[in-house]
Design brief:
Helices cover 46% and strands 10% of the residues. The protein is α/β, with parallel strands linked by helices. It has one domain: Alpha-Beta Barrel (TIM Barrel). The strands form two sheets. The protein has an eight-stranded parallel sheet with strand order 3-10-9-8-7-6-5-4. It is globular and about 65 Å long. It binds flavin mononucleotide. This is Alpha-hydroxy-acid oxidizing protein. It comes from Pseudoxanthomonas composti. Pfam families: FMN_dh.
């Protein structure tokens, strides 16, 4: 069992305020993900902060995810020696530091440049899974180098020519060392996100009066854009000739990466992918069962962070039925609204083997760059250890059983 690591080397006096070092300073400035979100939103124009933070429709599903987590109670068990807790977990044959990874996020560089690299490096350092998006702003090859031990790849299908490009993307991901392929099922149509429509969001960013005023209020973001350029959909460069423009890449993604991922296409991808494979965006137990029958190693219970279908259930509500149906044959993961270490415990308590968080990590990068992303991993790890111990569990197996064994 691992020994608990202190958050920072020395404490002068009573209280965590006495801790020293750069990590401790971040911890004081941003003790929670909410603090990071506020800072990240202040730094970025409204259209960028809203793109990350919003759901769709009336944000009902977005709020439902959070409300279900808040409503999840765990009765603690005391009297257990919890001085040594082990937050580690084994997923698809590999040991990770805790049962929480980074969810895939496309166009993450809109909030602050370098997001994908920053999150990948933070995940590698923290030894947690990092799921790199098909519509990320780096490249598959670069992420493979930055996160060699924790790289998972997320695929959105490109249906044209019998998925020629989809198959090539996963070939490249396998070559770059991705250990797990995550295929997203829950985007049969492009979502209408009225907040983005209202904010005039378009990539590449076009200066219109509304967006210009928005950017004028975010000078650090604007400087960053001037220095690093607009976010590019770098994974698609090989399919558009030599050094395609940012505009050409964005148009390609908008036009080609559209249409449903079908069970038939999934079966073909299963044949082509040599390692573990997970279907993302499952909310119905019948769909979970079908995915497992197709040979999937895992299902990710997700409603896309409330960004696709406002009537969808909270993921924590959908989770127990899916665990009951496929939890013995497959790894069940969940995401949606996680912002605290105790949320990871809640996910395990409802039967998940592990969870992912998206926005939480991106707010960290948005507020404080690479150090901010690392800080979020540290926050989750510290809080998850505390939550485990407080509940009376010393490892993830006991956490799933709801604290210490009786007797
Ligand atoms: C800005 C943003 C971009 C996203 N892009 C993708 C994506 O490219 N592929 C995907 O499967 N899911 C995508 N998602 C959904 C996340 O993977 C994940 O399901 C969701 O964000 C989890 O909820 P949380 O952000 O509240 O933790 C995106 C989410 C956000 C916030």
């Amino acid at each position: 069992m691992a020994t608990p690591r202190p958050a920072a080397p020395v404490s002068r006096g009573w209280g965590s305020g006495g801790l020293t070092g750069a990590a401790a300073a971040l911890r004081r400035r941003y003790p929670t993900v909410d603090d990071l979100e506020r800072a990240a939103r202040r730094r970025a124009p409204r259209f960028a902060g809203d793109f990350v933070g919003n759901g769709l429709g009336d944000d009902v599903c977005l709020r439902r995810n959070r409300a279900a987590l808040d409503a999840c109670r765990i009765t603690p068990r005391y009297g257990v020696d919890v001085r040594r807790v082990d937050p580690g977990v084994t997923l698809f044959g590999r040991r990770y530091a805790m049962p929480l990874g980074v969810a895939p996020m496309g166009l993450a560089g809109l909030l602050r440049s370098g997001a994908d690299e920053s999150l990948a490096a933070a995940a590698q350092a923290a030894n947690v899974p990092y799921v790199y998006s098909s519509v990320g702003n780096s490249t598959i090859e670069r992420i493979g180098k930055m996160a060699p031990d924790v790289f998972w790849y997320q695929l959105y299908g490109v249906p044209a020519q019998e998925h020629r490009v989809s198959l090539d993307l996963i070939r490249r991901a396998a070559e770059a060392g991705a250990q797990v392929l995550v295929v997203t099922l829950d985007v049969p149509v492009r979502a209408k996100r009225s907040g983005d429509v209202r904010n005039g969001l378009v990539v590449p960013f076009k200066p219109r009066l509304r967006t210009l005023l928005d950017v004028l209020g975010a000078p650090r973001w604007a400087l960053d854009l001037l220095r690093h350029g607009q976010p590019r959909f770098g994974n698609f460069e090989p399919y558009l000739g030599s050094r395609p423009s940012t505009q050409a890449l964005a148009t390609y993604v908008y036009q080609q990466m559209a249409g449903p991922m079908t069970w038939e296409a999934l079966a073909r991808l299963r044949q082509a992918w040599p390692r573990a494979m997970v279907v993302k965006g499952v909310l119905h137990a019948d769909d979970a069962e079908r995915a497992v029958r197709l040979g999937m190693d895992g299902v990710l219970v997700s409603n896309h962070g409330g960004r696709q279908f406002d009537a969808a259930p909270a993921t924590l509500e959908a989770l127990p039925q899916i665990v009951a149906r496929v939890g013995r044959q497959a790894t069940v993961l969940v995401d949606g609204g996680l912002r605290h270490g105790v949320d990871v415990l809640r996910a395990l308590h409802r039967g998940a083997h592990a969870a992912l968080a998206g926005r939480a990590f991106l707010w960290g990068h948005g507020a404080a760059g690479a150090a901010g992303a690392r800080h979020v991993a540290a926050l989750f790890e510290e809080e998850f250890r505390l939550a485990l111990a407080q509940s009376g569990a010393v490892d993830v197996h006991q956490a799933a059983r709801g604290g210490a064994d009786p007797g």
